[in-house]
Every structure is written in C-alpha cells, then in structure tokens.
TrEMBL record, chain A:
InterPro entries: MZT1. It comes from Echria macrotheca. It is found in: Cytoplasm, Cytoskeleton, Microtubule organizing center, Spindle pole body. PANTHER family: MITOTIC-SPINDLE ORGANIZING PROTEIN 1 (PTHR28520:SF2). This is Mitotic-spindle organizing protein 1. Pfam families: MOZART1 (PF12554). Belongs to the MOZART1 family. It comes from the Eukaryota. Keywords: Cytoplasm, Cytoskeleton. The keyword Cytoplasm applies. One of its GO terms (cellular component) is interphase microtubule organizing center. GO terms for biological process: gamma-tubulin complex localization; microtubule nucleation by interphase microtubule organizing center; mitotic spindle assembly. Required for gamma-tubulin complex recruitment to the microtubule organizing center (MTOC). Part of the gamma-tubulin complex.
Length: 92, 116
C-alpha cells in the first residue's frame, strides 16, 4: 500500500504543478487550454525543444483556423445552394 | 522506436487538440494525417539552441516589472505568487516549460485578464 500512496502523492503533486503552469499561461495570455498544456508538458519532458514546439503550436493554430474557415464556408455555400433550389422549387 | 511511437502519439493528440475543435472524428483524422509528418520533422530537425534558464528568469522578471510599471500590480503579484508556488515543484524541465510559455505569450501587459 505504501507504493500506491506514494504514486497518488506524486500524481497529486504533478496535477498541482500543471495547475500552476496553467495559471501562469493565463497570466501570460498564451491561449492554451489545460489539455493542450498537459500534452505540451509531456512532450517537453520527453525531450522536445520548447521553441520548436511553440512554433509548431503556432503553425497548427493557423492551420486549424483555416480548416474551420473552410468548413464554415462550405456549410454556408451548401445552405445557399439549398436556399436557391428551394426558391426555384417555389417558383415552379 | 519506442520514443518515436510515443512522440507520434503525442503529436496526434496535439493536432486533435489544436485543429480538432468543432470538427467531427473523420475531419480530425484527416487533419492528423495531413500534419503529422511535417510536425514530426519540425520537432526532430530544428536549429534552436538549448534553453538558458537565466534568460528565462530574466524575461519573467521583466514581465513582472512591466506589469508594475503600467499599473497592473494585481497581475504582477499573481505572476510572482505563481512563480514562487512553482519553486516547490521544480524539475529539470521547468525552465524549458516556462520558455515554451514565454514563446506563446501574446501581449500579456495589454490583453491578460485576471478574471480568466
């Protein structure tokens, strides 16, 4: 049982550290949610260079925004087509 | 190989987290397939130097001072308190994680809100 206690203590300490780092990221206005921050922390702990990771995060954010814009544009184009065909149906 | 597999899994999670918001499962998988290779290449072959912990500390002190200069005492105190609390949980990776946060910081003196 002491081993289990030790593990849960370590987990609690790690959680606390992530909480503090998340608060620091909010103060520095990093636009990171807890999940993304946790993933990035584990990547850094695996030896990934933090500056390379930051540039990847910026790039992925940009790509994500573009993908969302494309999705919105496709959805609005679909609605427009639907509206036109409905309008044409009414005319007939 | 194990390292690469682990890194690949983490990269997939990162892509899903950053590009997958408001997207369905199929679109997330498409995003992961599209970006996985380039992200792995960027992370493995880069030209960045190792992190200088003193430089990181200087930058954080600079932010704290700047917050005080522009009259955002509460923000400066909050940053100072969090950095002190983090000292208990110091690991060898702490300067690297703080460096990462500093890289992503976006005009905190003007835009950061304590209410967040």
């Amino acid at each position: 049982m002491p081993a289990a206690d030790d593990r849960s203590e370590k987990q609690a300490a790690a959680q606390q550290a992530v909480d503090i780092l998340h608060e620091i990221s909010t103060i520095l206005n990093c636009h990171l949610d807890r999940r993304t921050l946790s993933i990035c922390i584990s990547m850094i702990e695996n030896g990934v260079n933090p500056e390379a990771l930051a540039s990847v995060v910026k790039e992925l954010r940009r790509e994500g925004q573009e993908a969302q814009l494309e999705t919105v544009a496709a959805a609005s184009a679909g609605n427009a087509t639907l509206g036109t065909s409905t309008g044409a149906g009414r005319k007939r | 190989m194990a390292y690469l597999a682990q890194l690949g899994a983490q990269v997939d999670e990162l892509i899903a987290s950053l590009c997958g918001a408001n997207l369905d499962e199929e679109s997330v998988q498409k995003q992961q397939a599209a970006h996985r290779e380039s992200v792995l290449r960027s992370l493995r072959h880069h030209t960045f130097l190792r992190v200088n912990q003193f430089d990181v500390q200087d930058q954080l002190n600079g932010f704290e001072e700047r917050f005080r200069v522009i009259g955002r005492e509460a923000l400066a105190n909050a940053l100072n308190a969090r950095l002190e609390a983090l000292e208990v949980h110091q690991t060898k990776w702490t300067p690297d994680i703080l460096r990462f946060l500093l890289e992503l910081s976006d005009q905190p003196a003007q835009k950061a809100k304590l209410s967040d």
